[in-house]
Amino acid sequence: MQRLNFEVMYSVKRVCKVGRLYPSLVRRHQTLSTAESRDLPLKYIESHRVEQSSHIPESTFRHPHLPRDVDDKRLLQLYEHHIPTNYFQKMILSVGAATAALLDPKRADMVAVLGETTGHFALSRLFDDMVRDPEGQEILRDKPRIHSSIINLDELAHLPNGTFGHAYVKFLNDNQVTPDSRLPVQYVDDADMAYVLQRYREVHDLFHTVLGMPTNMLGEVTVKWIEGMQTQLPMCIGGAIYGPLRFRPKQRQLYLSTYLPWAIRVAKAAKPLMHVYFEKRWKQSLVDLRRELNIEDPPI
């Protein structure tokens, strides 16, 4: 069965590499080089800071100097690892990924594909919200990454006990996870939204740390509720709704009586976690950081 799933997804992936791009790509800023795309959030911030509206117009991500005679060859790859796909191909990928993820929730690759092919509107809103937030603007300007080649984990481990950086390394060690395991975004056809999704993946463990949640099923579902309510990503909402179906009776009782109410309160009251520049908070007390973000103490 796994071999069949692999062959199906591999075939679909091959099709996606050569498929026609859907017309809406031509209307956006995607003729830009990767370097130019990295500058777009700052240009967008400078020209739209006062004119932001409550909805996201179609032209939000369009580059102001996009030529009319777009060369399709330049649309093929907007960022490293990008695989352009049209709506039909995304639908095939999302159905296949959802099926594979339901059969085996440990298939992180399928969960990743599902998030990329179903998150367009949520990512648009997330980007727009980050632009409006001063700290979110900094993140979009700097485009920081969470990786052991960039972050000195040994240095964080030697920070005083109780600091956020020390707690993060302890979380990684206790749960035997690494920041290097996050897959690159491939199927998001906008360089800026692709970064927002990549950022979400890479700060997921930082969410666990600041929320005080382990990586077991109960902890993951609790974090997914907060992520789903704050980001509105379909993948997060699906994990929050369907994850509890795998709980044992005692877990379900604890979840309904304690963890779920806590997650809903935190999601509503706390600052959007995607707007937090965590890399500038390593030396901050975890207690102070939770107080600043309005996160009540975890129920553990």
TrEMBL record:
<comment type="function">
    <text>Lyase that catalyzes the C1-decarboxylation of 4-hydroxy-3-methoxy-5-(all-trans-polyprenyl)benzoic acid into 2-methoxy-6-(all-trans-polyprenyl)phenol during ubiquinone biosynthesis.</text>
</comment>
<feature type="binding site">
    <location>
        <position position="204"/>
    </location>
    <ligand>
        <name>Zn(2+)</name>
    </ligand>
</feature>
<dbReference type="GO" id="GO:0031314">
    <property type="term" value="C:extrinsic component of mitochondrial inner membrane"/>
</dbReference>
<keyword id="KW-0456">Lyase</keyword>
<comment type="subunit">
    <text>Component of a multi-subunit COQ enzyme complex.</text>
</comment>
<dbReference type="GO" id="GO:0008270">
    <property type="term" value="F:zinc ion binding"/>
</dbReference>
<protein>
    <recommendedName>
        <fullName>Ubiquinone biosynthesis protein COQ4 homolog, mitochondrial</fullName>
        <ecNumber>4.1.1.130</ecNumber>
    </recommendedName>
</protein>
<keyword id="KW-0830">Ubiquinone</keyword>
<keyword id="KW-0831">Ubiquinone biosynthesis</keyword>
<feature type="binding site">
    <location>
        <position position="220"/>
    </location>
    <ligand>
        <name>Zn(2+)</name>
    </ligand>
</feature>
<feature type="binding site">
    <location>
        <position position="205"/>
    </location>
    <ligand>
        <name>Zn(2+)</name>
    </ligand>
</feature>
<keyword id="KW-0472">Membrane</keyword>
<feature type="binding site">
    <location>
        <position position="208"/>
    </location>
    <ligand>
        <name>Zn(2+)</name>
    </ligand>
</feature>
<keyword id="KW-0862">Zinc</keyword>
<dbReference type="InterPro" id="IPR007715">
    <property type="entry name" value="Coq4"/>
</dbReference>
<keyword id="KW-0999">Mitochondrion inner membrane</keyword>
<keyword id="KW-0479">Metal-binding</keyword>
<dbReference type="GO" id="GO:0120539">
    <property type="term" value="F:4-hydroxy-3-methoxy-5-polyprenylbenzoate decarboxylase activity"/>
</dbReference>
<dbReference type="Pfam" id="PF05019">
    <property type="entry name" value="Coq4"/>
</dbReference>
<dbReference type="InterPro" id="IPR027540">
    <property type="entry name" value="Coq4_euk"/>
</dbReference>
<keyword id="KW-0496">Mitochondrion</keyword>
<comment type="pathway">
    <text>Cofactor biosynthesis; ubiquinone biosynthesis.</text>
</comment>
<comment type="similarity">
    <text>Belongs to the COQ4 family.</text>
</comment>
